[in-house]
Amino acid sequence: MPEPQHYQAEPHPQPSHSELQAVPKIPSRKASPVKREASVSPATGDLHRQGTTATSGGHSGASLGRSSSRRSAHTTSDGRVLPGSAFVNGAGTTGPFTTAPEEEDLYERGSEAHANLTPKQKSKIAKEEAKHGKRLTKIIKAEAKTEKQALALAIDELEELQKFQKSAVKNEGRAQANHNKLLGQFKKTEAAYLSAKMKYDTDLAHLKSEEEILETLKNNSREATERMQDKAVEVNALRETLRVDEREREVKLTQLKGKSPKSPLHCWQGDLSA
Hints:
By secondary structure, the chain is mainly alpha-helical. 62% of the residues lie in helices and 4% in strands. It has helices spanning 17-21, 61-64, 104-115, 119-256, 264-273; strands at residues 36-40, 47-51. The protein is rod-shaped.
């Protein structure tokens, strides 16, 4: 940044008391796009001005930053405004938001009035401004200490965050190692489970097959028994029929031979008693 240029106000002849009273009032002018800061030399009481760069909006570079939101100049990588301490936007006395915008007519009025002051008046005003400067110097130095303390606190917070980061990384490493161990155990258990499940499925299939075979053999045995029962009924019926047929046949043969047969009932009863 280039050093500000100082301009010495041109000396004017000292006016008399009557001329001082007759000084006309300077009409106000529109603000000039060029902003200057007026200052008085404590040694001589002379008024100086500092030129600054003109902008298209008619404000100095410092005044450009004075927006209603006062957005922080520090942002994160994704564009979010970075929150911070009291000094994140600069110091309160020397930061980018501490310069009040000045107008050209105000400087012109000050130059005109300063030109009409006596050396004594200039010296008096310069002494008062020097006192103010000393007080402001103390405030600025005190704020510098406060800002250093704020920086020290921020560094302490950063140190604590680094400790937390270190602890978090250690915890992550332990968790990862435990996860890998449990994953290995699970793989072994999974392999054993799959092997046992395959054996279980095989044995279950064999069991179901044997159960089907057993059920088929049981059905065959039951059907064989039922068929035997049916055949036994048939045999018993044939036997009874044969007994009757044999007796009736003998009676018939006896009749054919001319012999008188006995009463059928008597014969049947006699056979029964025999």
